[in-house]
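User: Second chain of the day. Same drill as before.
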Amino acid sequence: MEASPAEDPIRLCLPLQPAGHLGEYRGGLQGSLVRRGKKGRTVKEASLYDPREEGKVRCRVCAHRCLILPGKRGLCGVRENREGLLYSLVYGKPIAVHVDPIEKKPLFHFLPGSASLSLATVGCNFRCLFCQNAEISQVEDRKTIPGRDIPPEEIVEAAKNARCLSISYTYTEPTVFFEYARDIAFLADAQGLKNVFVTNGYMTGEVLEALHPHLHAANVDLKAFDDAFYRTYCGARLQPVLDTLRTMKRLGIWVEVTTLIIPTLNDGPESLRDLARFIAEELGPETPWHISRFHPTYRLTDLPVTPLSTLKRAWEIGKEVGLYYVYTGNVPGDPAEKTYCRSCNALLLDRIGFSVRENRLKGKSCPRCGTPWDGFEG
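Assistant: Same format as last time:
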């Protein structure tokens, strides 16, 4: 999961720099990006659900497929059964809207160096004990849904005004605000903007089929290659995530994978090897794998920061199984943040943190040997 902006919980920011320099953008309330709507209680009937007996409904948006009783909500906390009809409580109600470098998602092979309007509502269908954004992803107060009323067309207008090349649905879990994301994505695509999901991958195939003509890229958290880990630390299962990754690949969505390496929990060499091998064999060796450093947070404060030696070993494992592009995360300045040619190892994208300092690509190819670069440059 991508970390949310740190200051104001509703970040409505207008960058002062030209779009080409937004890789260095670090935030700060610099003006109104979108009109601040009034706090409201707008709801919208959900898509992808089935009526059941006695007023129950079966939600088909995520792999939990919650059976929701009248007056109750699904596990995500933002989809509610009202008299036999399922409603989204977060449609048009983002809790965070912010301009980020696309590298922050992280996406290193999709529109490198560009800006992406990034948004989220509250709610998530996971219960990760190591969540970076628990203050907005976990809905504790069932009476109040925080956020501002901002319709899809205003989000698209804001992205264009900020000279973003894409809109990213991120920070929490876009699956739980599927209807809002879908409507924004349709409008954005029609106006030449790309759409990006930063997701735990726990959506159903129906969601992907509905989105894919307008969903261009995704970073998927593959948190471990162990179902017991998913059940214990995320409240979910592994298989639906693997299914999502395969489906995205089949649909032609550009995919990058992120794994947060947590000491003692998912850092075993054989488990990491199995995970990396899945990426190489099922998604293709050109699929970037981001291995991120864990910092104690939320309910896992008793574990240490990931040793750099562990990240280095994970990087080596990724290369050993044949992945072309393996990147370290949360280690600014590490050489493994940069993109190198998969054939001759020439530097292609000089990157520090979320900033692309130099793009040496020549016509989407290596300037030294001519090998094509794997990714999407627009």
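Confidence is low (pLDDT under 50) at residues 6-40.

User: Great, on to the next one.
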